[in-house]
Amino acid sequence: MATIQVDGRRYAVDDRDNLLQACLTLGFDLPYFCWHPAMGSVGACRQCAVKQYRDADDTQGALVMACMTPAADGTRISIADDQAREFRANVIEWLMVHHPHDCPVCEEGGHCHLQDMTVMTGHHRRRYRFRKRTHRNQYLGPFIAHEMNRCITCYRCVRFYRDYAGGTDLGAFGAGDNIYFGRHREGVLENAFAGNLTEVCPTGVFTDRPHSERYARKWDLQFAPSVCHQCAVGCNTSPGERYGEIRRIENRYHGEVNRFFLCDRGRFGHGYVNRDDRPRRPEWHAAAGETRVLDVDEALERGGEALRRARRVIGIGSPRASLESNHQLCELVGQDNFSTGIAEREQVCLARMRRLNLDAGLPTPTLREVEAHDAVLVLGEDLIASAARLGLAVRQAVLGRREVLAEARDIPAWNAEAVMTLAQDARHPLFIAYPTTTELDAIAERCLHLAPDDIARLGFAVAHAIDATAPAVGGLDERTRATAERIAEALRSARRPLVIAGGSLESPAILEAAGNVARALATRERRGGLTLVRREANSTGVELLDGRPLEWALDALGQGDADAVVVLENDLHRRLPGERVDRALAAAETVIALDHQRTATWERAHLGLPAASFAEADGTLVSLEGRAQRFYPVYEPRYHRPESRIHPGWRWLLALHAGLQRRTLPDVAFDDLTRDCARRHPVLAGIVAAAPGADERVCGLKLARQPHRYSGRTAMRADLDVSEPSPPRDPDTPFTFSMEGYAGFDRPRREVPFAWAPGWNSPQAWNKFTDEVGGHLRGGDPGARLLEPAAGVAGHVDAIPPPFEAGVGEWRVVVLPRLFGGEETSSRAAPIMARAPAPTLRLAPADARRLAAEAGDTLVIETSLVHLTLPLLVDAALPSGLVGIPAGLAAALSSGAPARLSVVPGDGEAQP
Amino acid sequence: MRENLEPLASDGDGFVLDPQDRRAIEQERRHYEQPQAACIEALKIVQRRHGWVPDGAIVAIAETLGIGPASVEGVATFYSLIFRQPVGRHVILICDSSVCFLTGFEPLHAALAGQLGIDFGQTTDDGRFTLLPACCLGACDGAPALMIDDDTYATVAAEDLATLLEAYP
What we know:
The structure holds 2 protein chains of 2 kinds.
Chain A: E1 2-6, E2 9-13, H1 19-26, E3 49-53, E4 62-65, E5 76-78, H2 82-95, H3 113-121, E6 144-146, H4 156-164, E7 171-175, E8 178-182, H5 197-200, E9 206-208, H6 209-213, E10 222-223, E11 226-227, E12 236-242, E13 245-251, H7 264-268, E14 283-285, E15 291-293, H8 296-309, E16 313-316, H9 323-333, E17 338-339, H10 344-359, H11 367-370, E18 375-379, H12 383-386, H13 388-399, H14 401-408, H15 416-423, E19 430-434, E20 446-449, H16 452-466, H17 478-493, E21 497-502, H18 508-524, E22 529-533, H19 539-543, H20 550-558, E23 564-568, H21 578-587, E24 590-595, H22 600-604, E25 607-610, E26 619-622, E27 627-631, H23 637-640, H24 649-660, H25 670-680, E28 703-704, E29 735-736, E30 784-785, E31 811-816, H26 830-835, E32 841-843, H27 845-850, E33 858-862, E34 867-874, E35 882-886, E36 898-903
Parallel strand pairs in A: 1-5, 16-17, 16-23, 18-19, 18-21, 19-20, 21-22, 23-24, 24-25, 28-29, 31-35, 32-34
Antiparallel strand pairs in A: 1-2, 3-4, 3-5, 6-9, 7-8, 10-12, 11-12, 12-13, 14-15, 14-25, 26-27, 27-30, 31-36, 32-35, 33-34, 33-36
Helix pairs in contact in A: 8-24, 9-24, 9-25, 10-18, 14-15, 16-17, 16-18, 20-21
Chain B: H1 19-29, H2 39-50, H3 55-65, H4 69-78, E1 90-95, H5 98-102, H6 105-116, E2 129-134, E3 146-148, E4 151-153, H7 161-166
Parallel strand pairs in B: 1-2
Antiparallel strand pairs in B: 1-3, 3-4
């Protein structure tokens, strides 16, 4: 700690900070551009100048850049000093020389850091009367729009894109007065985190392109605290709604999870909420294929009657639905009839992951904690594809070596350029074992491209090398053994080693191997972490409900053990072969589907009930960290579409339950459902504390979803009715669908719909909500962790698979997750589909030669269940004997399945 | 049939990296820890052969060094003596920094521009000369100075120009 004097008053600050961080943490409004809490200082923009004085006798002082000056004990500075003020106003004026006067038509307007800083410095009159330099803009893909004329050359974009996120295709070109930030050639920005440029850029050079299609200012959007549903990481988001559509997703700061950044799937994958073809009213699908739209009462009557008539009702839950909805389904059908809706091969992995979280002796680090690990082993995960934000955190962990080196030379961690120049390519060790290349390979010490069983064998060998009591792997070749030794050595000598594995390759052996490595490390010393990647938003949570696998449910229906089924927000056709699903559904007397998407399963249901998506429902999800987090409805769907009959899944299920028992629907509060769920499942006891109750108030007020400048409320429904209805009520949450309510920053609160503080309209406003810049929310970071390791360390597992051997004329399928197009709901969003690469079939070069096939040839892959044609991609990294298929193509193709391949004749070059 | 040939680097606009230049770049690469560090030398190697750095060369150099084309383009566009547009057979740099400015840059520039019929950034119609400003040629003791290709000329007077230029056909 240090004491510094700011404008004559003394403050206690952290002496590891620079003066800008210290001043912002103290709550001063000091303007800045190039500094970013996650990226440190480079002193490029000269905007944060303050006057520094040597001692009490120094009346002259000297201007210094706050971001480049340590907050050393005894420092005396003035922010209010006239010269410093004038200097800052002048800097803004210079930066604005070439900036267009286009705020009214600029999509950054209203959440623009440059606007905020311009107002803050008082620069309100342009004196530059000459020609402005102009640039040509580039097409950067479906996510990001480019308007270079607005650039103020702060270099934040390339610092984020290249240094922080590891992208290579965004550059800074030119010199002096003529600098351009863009791609070398027009084209799609390749990095998975490019969307963050919209928030990192202090002005409107990079803006949200899908938002541009249906644009509204930030102050005209209605927000709620939400949790991303597009993978299992659990990033916090702020979806913004206008006219009953989600218009954009912004990062919502969480001090332990996503902090400042989201991946592009999370940011741009929400379009499925707005689809025109979404079911919005209950539907009855008659046998002849005709559809009747029903009213709610009629739908519930038919549903209740069908359930009453049924001998036995099976409930099929979903890892993309909330705990509360799944729990209500379980209550409706009974625990014995409840399936998680997850295919057995995946559920086996999920169960194993839960066990490892509890008994392998190492805790799951939060993403922030991941960044503090100094040796990482990744077994069988392509993190940028399966849990992108976690991959970004692993990148920071590996780059963390820079800070260790800097500390040894007394260079403060915030001094970004100095730290980078010093460290050059020095990195903490990262080892990746995966069937093919991954994006993180570029920063890994060793990448091993292995078949799943060989990945497991490597893991077991590493465990044995750390702890001799772990089972040894027989028949290991010298090179793998030496690699295992090196990995073991790196993990052993690390201060905080991290082991990452997961269910992507659906290999229990890989998970057990990761478990042995964790146990080996935990037996030596209980430090380090074990992160296990799950696939979907609530995979971790639904597995905790102890349901049966999906196959069991289908068998029960197919064999006539049950004659009715309720499917909750789950497209079974994406999990198991369609024919098998269809057979089971056809055998059932009654199929009731609840969903917010028109899926193959929905089409086959007799009764379809339109469920709310994440944007219209409340619910709790459990992330792969084991963190239970609450998401809240962003808007009431009936407000803009009075004909809509969308309700949260749990509400439909409560109503069906009441109908089944011929009761009237009880008046149940959402908090009661959460409590009920926690009571029934002791492992979920923590979910009640994961979020504030509906009775939470700040200054006696509910919390506002709309910024106080929200405009047009009286007019926006005028096409439906000239009299304005009262805003929808929201008894289930502490929020209001209104600008009336608390929306400030000064009272600590955990759930913040949108960040705004006086003078701070941009996402930089989050600095007003945290205990220190880049720290934790003053009201506490949202959520509650559920899965902490038990006291002991369980014994090693001895289930080492034999080495993988390529078959003759037969290949083993590996299903490879992909960020874009590999996930169910985001694949229904137009920008994601535009960004998704065309699916290909991957083969090792030797295998392609054996088939006499060349890249681009059409191949047929055949298993006992599926026949699929795909273009060939020859993958030099893939081990021979494997065939790589992108995830999300065909449910019938699962990792490990044997497949035959053939080339489609006549597709190659014409024979002479 | 194409066999045992080195892969040709080309990005479609016709540029082919000369095998000798490729070897020279690879040689430079070995002098540094970081591939980026060899960027300037690689650009100079290409410019030596072609007189300037065509678009295709950026991609070819990036491939040879194993870095992104954006990094190479960043370096190429930063340095004013790496030419990203075609230049004449000879490049004339006139120093316009303070010492030369005080000692006669302006009349020298006017005379040169008048004789060649071009201004800064332009090339004569016959493709013989390109005229560029330079912020310092390190010849302040002999100001005003100019440079034609690799030759520096000190205390140049407007009337010397015709003779000077004749040496550069």
